[in-house]
């Protein structure tokens, strides 16, 4: 049971949420009635009240939407072929070949690899094996299909259930760049080991579920705070966005979008588990500071069925 549940029961009000987290209304509690209404209308208090309401909403969002995730941070240690990493050479098991673009016949390139034997465990995710993400170097969208985002003709996901102790050189594929190869990686030799940290993050304003979570927060607020929010919604949302802004490489949690979230409609419906996010940091660059996301339905993830993963990236 959380601190808020112990103090206030299962459904604390917005003001109780704020008090529990040390968020103080700039208008003293002794100011009541008409005088309090006048204080909320005082234009000199707009900045302080806006910050107060924003902090109160973020506190409620943290309480209601925090989700487990794994942050993936760059390491200075060069990766080996089996590490969790971005780019570089990759392991090809016996009986398999390096993946190719089904439309052009040209090789695909390793964008990222997850070694679940070495990662903290997240609910529904594998506990063992390698998950390799390949994209096209001969396509301006890196293989993404906007109309059929689950089509893996020009990109690929490969799950290898067992991680070998050693990999013979004959089972290592090396990226071979052509003059016209176009990838979000700086060069063919780029490979970066990723170090995991298990954490939890609150929903951000780019997720399609944010508005519903926000409305639930507003429903617990008193009339004055809710009316103030509606009057100053733009400024308060800007503050909330700044407070919740985060990106980076990650597994699970909430995705980041630079344009809009495509998931409410069509083939995206129900694909609410973030399998992997690769951001434009650490020398990785998707066009103009873009973000790449791979999504999967929870039931398919539990079955280790990666045939219907949806690949999406957008940029500024």
If you had to describe this structure to a student in words, what would you say it looks like?
The protein has 316 residues and is an alpha+beta fold. The chain folds into 2 domains: 105 residues, no CATH class; 190 residues, YwqG-like (Hypothetical protein YwqG fold, Roll). It is 24% helix and 22% strand. Strands 6-5-4-2-8-1-9 form a 7-stranded antiparallel sheet, with no helix packed on it. The longest helix has 20 residues. The two termini are 41 Å apart. The N terminus is likely disordered.
Topology of this structure?
Blueprint: H1 3-8, H2 14-20, H3 33-40, H4 46-65, E1 67-74, E2 85-87, E3 90-91, E4 108-115, E5 130-136, E6 156-160, E7 172-173, E8 191-201, H5 210-219, H6 223-231, H7 233-244, E9 249-252, E10 273-279, E11 291-296, H8 298-302, E12 310-314
Antiparallel strand pairs: 1-8, 1-9, 2-4, 2-8, 3-7, 4-5, 5-6, 10-11, 11-12
Helix pairs in contact: 2-4, 4-5, 4-7
């Amino acid at each position: 049971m959380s601190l808020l549940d112990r103090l206030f029961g299962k459904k604390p009000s917005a003001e109780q949420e704020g008090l529990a987290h040390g968020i103080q209304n700039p208008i003293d509690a002794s100011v009541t009635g008409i005088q309090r209404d006048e204080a909320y209308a005082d234009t000199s208090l707009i900045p302080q009240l806006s910050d107060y309401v924003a902090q109160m909403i973020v506190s409620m969002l943290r309480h209601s939407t925090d989700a487990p995730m794994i942050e993936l941070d760059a390491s200075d240690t060069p990766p080996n072929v089996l590490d969790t990493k971005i780019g570089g050479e990759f392991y090809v098991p016996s009986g398999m070949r390096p993946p190719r673009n089904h439309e052009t016949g040209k090789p695909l390139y390793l964008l990222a690899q997850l070694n679940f034997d070495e990662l903290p465990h997240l609910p529904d995710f594998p506990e063992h094996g390698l998950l390799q993400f390949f994209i096209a170097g001969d396509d301006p969208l890196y293989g993404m299909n906007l109309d059929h985002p689950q089509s893996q003709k020009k990109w690929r996901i490969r799950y290898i259930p067992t991680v070998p102790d050693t990999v013979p050189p004959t089972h290592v594929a090396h990226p071979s760049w052509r003059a016209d190869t176009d990838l979000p990686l700086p060069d063919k030799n780029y490979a970066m080991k990723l170090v995991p940290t298990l954490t939890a993050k609150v929903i951000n304003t780019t997720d399609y579920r944010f508005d519903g979570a926000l409305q639930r927060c507003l429903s617990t607020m008193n009339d004055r705070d809710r009316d103030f929010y509606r009057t100053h919604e733009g400024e308060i949302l800007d503050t909330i966005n700044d407070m919740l802004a985060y990106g980076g490489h990650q597994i699970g949690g909430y995705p980041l979008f630079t344009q809009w979230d495509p998931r409410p409609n069509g083939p995206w419906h129900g694909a609410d588990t973030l399998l992997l996010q690769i951001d434009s940091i650490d020398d990785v660059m998707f066009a103009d500071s873009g973000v790449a996301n791979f999504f999967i339905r929870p039931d398919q993830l539990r079955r280790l069925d990666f045939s219907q993963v949806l690949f999406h990236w957008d940029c500024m």
